[in-house]
Design brief:
With about 80 residues, the chain is an alpha+beta fold. The chain has one domain. A 5-stranded antiparallel sheet has the order 1-2-3-4-5, with helices on one face. A hairpin with a 4-residue loop joins β4 and β5.
Length: about 80
């Protein structure tokens, strides 16, 4: 599971065995766990789930994802190429 970012205590990563799923990231920090779908065409994110994520953490992780959106999408595409897609 390659870590894409480690910032403000958040670990943003992919699982290597999730081929076939749309672009997304997993995010963890302490007891918080979340997964966000990424839409490159509309430059948008949508939560798949958010466990133990309070409103302040939700704002922070969304800000982190948006501020690094192009980098994250580039890493997703690179990982897809490495998986042979």
């Amino acid at each position: 599971m390659p870590t894409v970012l480690l910032i403000f205590g958040w670990r943003v990563f992919f699982y290597a065995n999730e081929a076939g799923e749309p672009p997304h990231v997993h995010c963890t920090k302490a007891e918080c766990d979340a997964k966000y779908w990424l839409n490159f065409e509309t430059y948008d994110i949508r939560p798949a789930y958010e466990y133990n994520v309070n409103p302040a953490d939700r704002r922070m992780i969304r800000k982190v994802i948006f501020n690094h959106f192009d980098y994250i999408m580039g890493e997703w595409q690179r990982a897809e190429q490495e998986r042979g897609k």
